[in-house]
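Let's sit down with a protein and look at its sequence and fold side by side. Once you have written the record down, we can walk along the chain together.
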Amino acid sequence: MTAVGRLPAGGYDAVWASPGRVNLIGEHTDYNDGFVLPFALPHSTVVAATRRDRPEWTVWSETTGETVRFGPDERVGGWAAYVAGIVWVLREAGHDVPGADLKVTSDVPLGAGLSSSAAIECAVMAALVDLAGADLPMPLRPRLAQRAENEYVGAPTGIMDQAAATLCRAGHALFLDCRSLATEHVPFDLAAERLAMLVVDSKAPHAHVSGEYAARRRSCEEAAKILGVAALRDVDADGLPDALAELGDEVLRKRVRHVVTEDQRVLDTVAALRAGDVRAVGPLMTASHESMRDDYEITVPQVDTAVRVALEHGAYGARMTGGGFGGCVLALVDEEHRDTVAAAVREAFAADGFTPPDTFVVTPGEGTRDVGGRAARRPGRRWS
């Protein structure tokens, strides 16, 4: 049963869905004003909203079974902070957000690096914007959702997750310039090439609010300041040797080398997809993983094992996706070999004593979308 089908029975004024995402390539480049290439999962978080007559919000989560209630001036923690943060940021931006009862269901795996947090943020935003009848175009929403996560929740994430959850298009990867927010929907048709994207959920959890993610971001900001650039995006591959020579600290050198080479790998991947050469993406994925492992130092044994075993069993490329320290691995494989690769990874995890992984195949899905509700059917309704 889909997340929509699991909603409690009832008539809702607005029902919106936002997907989780995987990042094909471009890790830890977003907060460096660089380039990323995510695509939306078929897995989504669904928010069903019913208007209330007073400025108060209640939110029920199918996942936790909890109901949280808060007013406009109350600070909320835990999972409900992602909901309250959106109410806060919309009000801060001058939108008259009505009170609402919200029901949340989701089939986006939690703690797997698939951006379940952005999925709930963007679905809540869409539902509340719908209830308010506000004119808030989709391209403007990711920045607000990112602000909610940064300033209200306290997670120093870049804008990629919210942009992917909002803007992705089925059958495409989203090429995003994180400085200008310019986007391009790049065709990514795996089935036409008889390929599959296997996801391995390592079950090694990560947490962006933890110190390691923030430490990587601070290192990049420090390096940019030393190099006299606004962000590491401004150091290109040709200028990398000079930049590394200017940095006295080996850790900073490694962090800069990852970000600069990762930006270039995103550009090379986009070029390969534009040319229709999907298999050429494989070696770039593997190089990305090696850079995350050796220079950015954000992988763990479970994801390294999944990458190694996938490559040993014929994957064209494999890499960790997400912020790191756990989460999921992507492996680009022939469609006919996907089960073989998945079985080999499970066997390797068992041999190493790791928690059994989940494996599944994904295709590029759709971003934030209206999936029902009375508001969606009102005559003459204008959509952002």
